[in-house]
């Protein structure tokens, strides 16, 4: 089984961007963390990041066609993008919405998500440790 890990805008800046909120793990470290976790779980993983909404939507479409589960940290698009929600609605193999920070303990505008209502589950606030947990869920399901 192949699991898609898709990261949205500004997540390529992990480690440099607001480390007090997102931690000191870099994006490159996050990729390695996911690849190691997947290898231990005996599943394949593809980890990608884009700052472009259309590119993210294209990857979601491809995952929907391939019937692959998706772990999605959509960054700020979580709170704004109906287009991303519409694309995610086609993910029959499952969707975990993931946030490194606890969005509910932050600004009001981060409390609403267009994705939560169509996601299998939501993980928020566990830092980058949320990624291997989400991978484990799909690997063991
Ligand atoms: C985030 C939370 C979002 O509100 C924010 O815009 C991000 C990252 C998180 O991982 O905590 O870019 O999705």
TrEMBL record:
InterPro entries, per database record: DHquinase_II (IPR001874), DHquinase_II_CS (IPR018509), DHquinase_II_sf (IPR036441)
Active site, per annotation: 22 (proton acceptor), 99 (proton donor)
Keywords on record: Amino-acid biosynthesis, Aromatic amino acid biosynthesis, Lyase, Membrane, Transmembrane, Transmembrane helix
Gene Ontology biological-process entries: amino acid biosynthetic process; aromatic amino acid family biosynthetic process; chorismate biosynthetic process; quinate catabolic process
EC number: 4.2.1.10
Highest taxon in the source lineage: Bacteria
GO MF term set: 3-dehydroquinate dehydratase activity
Name listed for the protein in its UniProt record: 3-dehydroquinate dehydratase
Source organism of this protein record: Rhodococcus spelaei
